[in-house]
Amino acid sequence: MELLYKKINDYQVGERVDSFLIIKRVDLKTTNSNGKKYLDFILGDATGEITAKLWEVPPELEGFFEANMVVRVRGMINLYQNQLQFKIERIRLRNDEDPVDPADLVPSAPLEPEYMYGQILTKYIEGLENIDMKLIVERLFRENEEKLMYYPAAKRNHHAIRSGLLYHVLTMLQLADVITQVYPFLNHDLLVSGIILHDMAKLVEMDASDIGIVREYTIPGTLLGHISIGLEQIGRVGREVGASEEVVMLLQHMVLSHHYEPEYGSPVRPMFPEAEMLHHIDMIDARMYDMKKIQEELEPGTLSDFILSLDRRRVYRPEFDQEETI
């Protein structure tokens, strides 16, 4: 049977589907009628989710599947209680030969990771004039290239998408370009370096799959957090490249203070302009991402629920953004 590359939001009742999806949740259950076991799934791709059932479960599959696994499934799309439901006939794990595009399975950054990595490297890192900053930033950026291609910026909330960390850094850098034109006294090298390094240690703090989903926080990430890990990384590389103690200290302070408040993980507040600006650029980019995402899910003229990541505020989507403009 030919593989059907349809997205979940295009599925139709009565359609036979043979495709790759990601497991969002799976539970082993028992039917009320005959006591037989079945697997109850929520499967997803980049466009949505669908419930699915595997009614006849071989004993070897009872505890086999887990959340975040990518599977190939074949079966029928039915209607149950006015909702689409996937009746699974066959299911297996993805293998290395399968033609799976991660962007089809999970929400991804709107730009290709190779492009974003190249832009950050050639436009920003190679453009640094301070040699010590350039040596530290380039070393850490290059040694993390593989993970940067797919890591999200968070487990949930802002930029929790495939390649989200690269996208977050790139948009922050673009904002910094504009801000340093308004405030030319800011040291562009220092601000750029702080932006690139501020969340780099999330690659150690979180354990993410190659499709960009965080499975869990690592033990070092749980015990130390990305801010403490980032301080150690900058200190280590600074010593290796022979950077000046002040440059290392300034970069460490920017990482240390970028969350601004002790309750959010920063034991000190920013103490020079570039560190202060790093915090605000980080907040602007994170909140604009969250607000845009929430607005896209709202009907014009409606309010969202209270959003935890936005200090429990609600978001409104104006009606005029749907109107024609001159």
Describe the structure in your own words:
This protein has 326 residues and is α+β, with helices and mostly antiparallel strands. The protein has 2 domains: 8-93, OB fold (Dihydrolipoamide Acetyltransferase, E2P); 106-291. 39% of the residues lie in helices and 20% in strands. It has helices at residues 102-105, 113-125, 131-143, 145-148, 164-182, 188-197, 202-205, 219-241, 245-257, 273-296, and strands at residues 16-30, 37-45, 48-54, 70-80, 83-93, 206-208, 214-217, 302-303, 316-317. α3 (131-143) crosses α8 and α6 (188-197) crosses α9.
Which characteristics define this entry?
five-stranded mixed β-barrel, alpha+beta, 326 residues, OB fold (Dihydrolipoamide Acetyltransferase, E2P), elongated
SSE blueprint:
Layout: E1 16-30, E2 37-45, E3 48-54, E4 70-80, E5 83-93, H1 102-105, H2 113-125, H3 131-143, H4 145-148, H5 164-182, H6 188-197, H7 202-205, E6 206-208, E7 214-217, H8 219-241, H9 245-257, H10 273-296, E8 302-303, E9 316-317
Parallel strand pairs: 3-5
Antiparallel strand pairs: 1-2, 1-4, 2-3, 4-5, 6-7, 8-9
